[in-house]
Amino acid sequence: MEISFKRVLFMFLFIFLLLGFGEGKVLLKKDFYRSTCPHVEKIVRQVVTTKMSQTFITVPGTLHLFFHDCFVTGCDASVLIFSPNNDAEKDAPDNLSLAGDGFDTVIKAKHAIESQCPGIVSCADILAIAARDVVTLTGGPNWEVELGRRDGLISKASLVAGNLPQPNFNLAQLTKLFAKHNLSQTDMIALSGAHTLGFSHCDRISDRLYPLTETDPTLNQSYAQQLMQQCPKNADPRIAVQMDPVTPQTFDNMYYKNLIQRMGMFKSDDVLFSDPDSNPTVMSFAAKPGDFAVAFVAGMRKLGRVGVKTGKQGEVRRDCSAFNS
Q1: What is the DSSP string of 35-93?
Q2: In this structure, how many other beta carbons lie within 10 angstroms of the beta carbon of residue 149?
Q3: Residue of 64, 68, 181, 195 with catalytic role
């Protein structure tokens, strides 16, 4: 009886791994399309390069899209789905700030790939490759992207609330949210460095600039005045401002240097410097750009494994904005 039980347990574990349950780490690999679509990364890089030449918003838009996709139901391109009823993931309040140029980049890359490798490459993988490319093409590190994700079959606005970091989060809240996805506090601080290429809409920082009493005293006052000029009181919420006022179009470690000067746009940025638990990491990344680059790549690889669908899970969409059936 004992031997039979062990055999059953072994078979169950084997099937569990074979089907790629959990985060699908087993089936993701760097050369996943080597025989089926060998030029996929070259095609995506060409589309990203062209799109960047048209508008720089492509860069933060694509990175932002990747983060938001992975944090809600995993890295499965569910954020790309369009719903005529405005109830898909992209329609949730926290996702209304996502730039259209990020969506357009993935859709154009998908179209280019379908002309050469129809029905092979998932939208989720295209987004992961494009997110890497916008970092590399703006001076950041390069890395091999693990591939083999499949596209999700669910996209609901109701699933977004509570699953994305908020501008007013403290360190404990940020750390807890990232830990849900097997991302450490160091991963969180490193991935926050993507804000060196980021932008925000004025309504996301109005509480720091125009509170009931005085402008947030923890915010560098010269920087606060600069933000007030860009985001006057009751400004159009569609107005966007760059999060790195020094090198906004270069992927570097300036984000951390800005934090030291109390020039973090969000409270959730500033807390990385002000909290003694995270301050040493911020100081290290500010002083050692190489260490930041290594930590960022490690964080992106771990982020790219979150909740992925592999094997027979999900599907490979023909159109990134719509389920196949």
Answers
A1: TT-TTHHHHHHHHHHHHHHH-TTHHHHHHHHHHHHHHTTSSSSGGG---TTS-SGGGSG
A2: 32
A3: 68
By the 8 A CB rule, do 254 and 285 touch? no
Q: What digits encode the pLDDT tens for the residues 174-192?
A: 999 999 999 999 999 999 9
Active site residue 64: no
Tokens describing residue 320: 């990134």
For residues 48 and 64, what is the distance between their CA atoms, to the nearest angstrom? 15
The token duo for 5 is 């039980």
58-105, pLDDT tens digit by residue? 999 999 999 999 999 999 999 999 999 999 999 999 999 999 999 999
* Structure tokens that stand for 3 in this block: 């031997």
Q: Rounded mean pLDDT of 142-164?
A: 98
Amino acid at 131: A
Kindly report the length of the chain: 325
What type of residue is 262? R
| 3-state SS assignment for residue 29 | strand
Q: Does residue 24 register a pLDDT over 70?
A: no
Give the dihedral of Cα atoms 262, 264, 269, 272; nearest 10 deg: -30
